[in-house]
Amino acid sequence: MKNISKTYKEPTKESLPTFSQFITNFFAALTQVFNLQRNISEIKTLRRTTKIMMSVMLIATVASFAFGNDYTFSGWIGLVTGIAVVLNLILVDQGRLTNYSWGVLGCVVWLIIAINNRLIGDIASQSFYLVMQFVGLYVWHNQINKQSSKDELTSRSFTWLNGLFWLIVTFVIYFVVLFFSKRLNGTQVYLDATLLPLGIVGQVLMTHGYRSQWIAWITLDIVNIIIWYNQLKIVSPASTSMFVLQVIMFINSLYGLYLWYYGQQKKVS
């Protein structure tokens, strides 16, 4: 990822692809995302700093599982969720296409945990994320192919008016989710209801390569830390692994913010 002001150009208007072209492009993207060789290559070629971050995050994830002493089905699912999410986040940090292979796995297993904990907002969020993984891999694949550099997605910025629009969208969705969460007897409804709107905004901005996505993710991570700390106190399913995962995600979001805004104006180790 490089400095947006120097490398990014707004795309020119193009005719929409036909249905057959869309299907061809989608399966081409799907093949690349789930290609084992590309997955290994994109992890091996991460920057040294990113590899250190990844190692620390994975060790913390496994350690939290071991010390949590939860070897139930939910506990193991929590471990798989943590590993998948860590790899997904690390690859997103550097704009790597294969982040979506881990994103799909992470969404599926996280959804199972959210259902077990009756977190209505989280269930809605993960369902949305799962759909958006397939939208994102298609958009990223096409955008990367249009760039001169094929290794990483080039980040973009938007105006304050765009930011105001997404802020309004966030509040509208929040009150809708809150309404349904109360009627479905959800857990921690006022906090839980923030997850879907923040997730929608973050995921849409991420799909289109906007750097401002990290503001949404950092806010969401802080809320998730509070939610899973509360779940940890009542010893809910996979709560130890999930709480540690939220802390890891928060730290990673700060790192991702740095990379997308400042850190990749030049190649760093």
Notes on the structure:
By secondary structure, the protein is mostly helical. The protein is 75% helix and 0% strand. The chain has twelve helices and no strands. α4 runs antiparallel to α5, α5 runs parallel beside α12 and α10 (195-207) runs antiparallel to α11. The radius of gyration is 18 Å and the shape is globular.
List the helices and strands and how they pair.
Elements: H1 4-7, H2 19-33, H3 36-44, H4 48-68, H5 73-93, H6 99-116, H7 120-146, H8 160-183, H9 189-192, H10 195-207, H11 213-233, H12 239-263
Helix pairs in contact: 2-7, 4-5, 4-12, 5-6, 5-12, 6-7, 7-10, 8-10, 10-11, 11-12
Q: Report the mean per-residue pLDDT as an integer.
A: 85
Radius of gyration: 18 Å
DSSP strand content: under 5%
Q: Give helix % range.
A: over 70%
Low-confidence stretches: 1-11
Structural class: mainly alpha
Helix segment count?
12
Order of helices and strands: HHHHHHHHHHHH
Main sheet summary: none
The quaternary structure here is single chain
Mass-distribution shape: globular
- How many E-type strands? 0
Distance between the termini: 13 Å
Please give a quick description of this structure.
With about 270 residues, the chain is mainly alpha-helical.
Task: For this entry, give a set of tags.
single chain; 269 residues; mainly alpha; 12 helices; disordered N terminus
